[in-house]
Design a protein that fits this description.
This protein has 510 residues and is an alpha+beta fold. The chain is 25% helix and 12% strand. The strands form six sheets. It has a three-stranded antiparallel sheet with strand order 3-2-7, with no helix packed on it. The chain has a two-stranded antiparallel ribbon with strand order 1-4. Strands 5-6 form a two-stranded antiparallel ribbon. Mean pLDDT is 93; it is low at 1-27.
Length: 510
């Protein structure tokens, strides 16, 4: 592991140069100056407690409390991802419950007698946040005859000229939408308007051999669209399927100090371990350069921005942060732009005026991570050792201590165990979508956190994993890892069956 702060100034300058920023902006990136929120004594404590363990004879102190003091210790059941952080105040609990009600709110098309619920669409993927994030858990891929909306297609094309390339280099945009269908493919529409079309997927099977003679079949998807209502897609437009991720621990992720994430980045693989994770740099609505840490390609820096963009793209609802009341409608979609919107001037200038976005953001920030199960069991510890030994922690960094100056005290100075470095990694041709999103190229994805992964079936009723749900279980998910993770994947495939089973048992406890 690299020393946590020694490389930060040089790394910050390097990342800014990758983003096309001028040298004068070298101090623009938060975290490049190290952890200024800690005293020297606290810094030493944090470095000691977050150092990867070498002792697998027992569980680490506080290891079962994945979300620190915010961890939910409620009984395990289908609602395990829907509890609030246990260290909230009584007043904050009230805000969480109000946010939950808005998260479940079903929006309707305009005009409607409900008024405060007006504004759906005109084009949309879902009518409520909860419909995509079922029980605040993981979505699922489309299946034959399935009409649900927990997987959608992101649309993007490369820059068409030097001017567009310059905007991309400066991170003024993450990519460019399809000129007709926009940045997201919407398969639903309000009455009187045609939906953009239908998303389709076909699978082929590929066999992978494991040590001991076992064979695993991986299903490789091919996504395409049919019944296009507004003409053809641009020939350069790429389709990237995105399955909705679990909602737990988002506020804690935002409270991880930028310096600690940057310290794990190694874009040129200076240490020669084959892992070259890089930070996702994005701009917020004010143009400020921030560290991207949410979304499959790290395209959003905050829970609030992630929530606002979901309101606009997924439901077609405008907020103070995304005031486009026609959602993702493009100038080419004249009929869409002619549809009525749900802005009620007596309530505000957008369809979801303040404090709607505030409350939904607070709810999303405080969905608690469940406590670990069986963290001290011998088989769990054996699997944890394998997880470390085959190199999984090179990307799935086990733990962080959140910043002391976090905006919310519930997330301040907590030892958390997300098992992610929140960096972008090349995952190989097998998982490539060919779509650039900011600094993430068509082969790169942000490392998803693993906390809660063992409760996927309990909460979501399935075990589909990866960005498009192609993996039907954890074994398949691991075997799809390529690129920087190929060496770890090969070591997994070459394990004795007992060691593979132990590793899977460990993951099931997270």
């Amino acid at each position: 592991m690299r020393p946590p702060h020694a490389l930060l100034p040089a790394l910050g300058a390097l990342l800014l140069s990758l983003a096309g920023a001028a040298p004068a902006c070298s101090g623009e990136l938060p975290g490049s100056e190290g952890r200024t929120d800690l005293s020297a004594k606290d810094k030493a404590r944090v470095e000691a407690v977050t150092k990867p363990t070498a002792d697998f004879s027992k569980e680490e102190q506080y290891e079962a409390m994945s979300g620190g003091a915010a961890t939910s210790t409620a009984a395990v059941n289908a609602d395990s991802f829907s509890h609030f952080s246990e260290n909230l105040t009584f007043q904050q609990e009230e805000g969480f419950k109000l946010g939950n009600a808005l998260f479940r709110k079903v929006w309707v098309s305009s005009p409607s007698s409900t008024q405060a619920s007006d504004g759906l669409g005109p084009l949309f993927n879902s009518r409520a946040c909860q419909n995509c994030h079922l029980k605040d858990g993981r979505g699922h891929p489309p299946e034959p005859g399935d009409n649900t909306s927990t997987t959608f297609l992101r649309l993007a094309r490369p820059p068409a000229d030097e001017a567009e390339q310059a905007r991309l280099d400066k991170l003024d945009v993450l990519n460019f939408p399809d000129p007709v269908y926009g940045g997201q493919f919407q398969d639903f529409a309000v009455p009187g308007l045609a939906a953009e079309g239908r998303m389709q997927v076909e699978y082929t099977e590929e066999a992978v051999a494991l040590r001991g003679g076992e064979t695993v079949s991986l299903r490789k998807p091919r996504y395409f669209v049919t019944d296009l209502a507004y003409g053809d897609l641009d020939p350069a437009t790429t389709l990237s399927p995105r399955m909705t991720p679990p909602m737990i621990g988002l506020g804690l992720i935002e409270a991880v100090h930028e310096a600690d994430i940057l310290a794990l980045a190694d874009p040129d693989d200076a240490d020669g371990n084959g892992i070259s994770g890089k930070a996702a740099l994005v701009r917020d609505k004010t143009g400020k350069l921030l560290l991207g840490r949410f979304g499959w390609k790290g395209q959003n820096p905050t829970v609030r921005q992630q929530s606002a963009e979901a309101f606009m793209n997924d439901i077609g609802i405008s907020t103070p942060d995304t005031p486009a009341s026609h959602g993702d409608c493009t100038p080419a979609q004249v009929a869409c732009l002619a549809m009525p919107v749900g802005v009620q001037k007596r309530l505000g200038d957008t369809e979801a005026p303040d404090p709607v976005l505030d409350l939904v953001t607070f709810y999303a920030e405080n969905l608690a991570v469940p406590a670990r199960r069986k963290a001290s069991f011998a088989e769990t510890l054996a699997g944890k050792k394998v997880f470390y030994e085959i190199g999984c922690i090179a990307c799935h960094n086990p733990k962080f201590v959140t910043r002391r100056d976090a905006r919310d005290k519930a997330q301040s100075f907590q030892l958390i165990w997300p098992y992610s470095d929140f960096l972008l990694h090349d995952m190989g041709d097998g998982l490539a979508d060919g779509q650039q999103v900011g600094l993430a190229d068509g082969r790169e994805w942000r490392t998803p956190p693993l906390w809660g992964i063992g409760l996927t079936e309990t909460v979501s009723g399935h075990t589909y994993f990866l960005h498009d749900g192609r993996a039907r279980n954890l074994t398949e998910a691991i075997l799809w890892h390529g690129g920087e993770a190929e060496a770890a994947q090969n070591r997994f495939a070459d394990l004795e069956k007992a060691d593979r089973d132990a590793l899977l048992s460990f993951l099931e406890t997270l």
